Amino acid sequence: MTAPNDRFLTQDRLRELIEADAVDTVVLAFTDMQGRLQGKRLHGRYFLDVALEHGTEGCNYLLAVDVDMNTVEGYEISSWERGYGDMEFVPDWDTLRLLPHLPATAMVQCDLVWPDHSPVVQSPRTVLRAQLDRVAERDMVALAGTELEFIAFNTSYEEAHRGRYRDLDPVNQYNVDYSILGTTRAEPLLRSIRNHMYAAGMDVEGAKGECNHGQHEIGFLYADAMVSADNHSVYKTAAKEIAAQNGQSITFMAKYDQREGNSCHIHLSLRGTDGSLAFWDDAADARSALYDRFVAGVLATMADFTLLYAPNINSYKRFAAGSFAPTTIGWGHDNRTCAVRLVGHGASARMENRVPGGDVNPYLALAAMLAGGLHGIEQELELEPELVGNAYASADHAHVPQTLHAAREAFAGSAVARSALGDAVVDHYTNMADVELAAYGATVTDWELFRGFERL
Fold first, then answer.
1. What is the pTM of this model?
2. How does pLDDT run across 248-302, given as a tens digit for each residue?
3. Residue by residue, what is the 3-state secondary structure of 67-136?
4. Is 219:115 a contact under the CB 8 Å cutoff?
5. Which CATH architecture has domain 11-120?
6. Hey, what CATH topology would domain 131-447 get?
């Protein structure tokens, strides 16, 4: 992989900026199981004098905690018995960029290796790279784009926390889907995010309003799948930081309230390493056989991999009839009621996976789509007939798992997942689901209190 464009930095350019005191902080970050950036902020001079050559480390519990950073049981790679040792951060210098929304700050994204320099196979970036290597063995590359929705509030994160996330003030008070007036109301925040992300190396398309109150989407041009996943992680963190700088807040949770949830539709296609189209037959002016088999594989493994598309308890609240979040495993041409929507023609032909929500880890979701699609190619699966009409009303198709427990069972028992990802990865993320399920099962919710305090 090479740097996507000249807005990224080279090591030499970073050295010049540090020596000129234009950069004094370098963030070394990786993406954890929950899709969050974790790592360290290094002083620029220390980075040049020490870390550039000798690197840095972090505790291996960073891939074995829950969302609250609690040490939990069940992970093979990290435990009290193993002593919670270190992992090494290995910078991918093609990801080196400025973070212009922060003063004098640059960032490089890292892979994780053990002290003996073997890869940490459970690391999300490594999981995706393994599937991209399988694609490369077929002389192809994967191109992807992620459409990440969020809800923005005029309430700060601190105020939201003190108020227990009730009665927040959304930046819009009504449905602003495609509304220019509605996006104008939120434009100071949206513009700041767009421009800062462009300066950080991302190819920004634009912003549009969505259905929930205060809900918006900022779109980015498709890119190499790894680049898109890297940009997704940086953007998701930076958008929250920019909102916080303005006394506002953003949530990407899949289902914030009873209205529309936050989706993360993922667009994916394959091309030859020479740029040739893999998903389109020019002579026939139609989808290629490889494209059909790829989509058939994604559909055949949709339940197996739903845990990687919908990794949290809250993820499953989003799957509701008539919500534009899919419940039926089927495909259709430009049909937004289906789990898989096929769009485009010729060079733009691609599949859209509509199952993931805003809480998805992009590396794991893309790895799952590639693993499923390659399964379809290898097994020469036949693509089922198109689902025409309202997929929510379809009675003869399987459904997306409706609970985290059901998705956990499908993933843990999936022969395809174990073959494609490896037992170590499947067992690791199965345990992540077990931790989430146990935490939720032990929690007394507001719903229970209101329902039962007096009346039961």
1. 0.97
2. 999 999 999 999 999 999 999 999 999 999 999 999 999 999 999 999 999 999 9
3. CCCCECCCCCCCCCCCCCCEEEEEECHHHCEECCCCCCEEEEEEEEECCCCCECCCCHHHHHHHHHHHHH
4. no
5. Roll (3.10)
6. Creatine Kinase; Chain A, domain 2 (3.30.590)
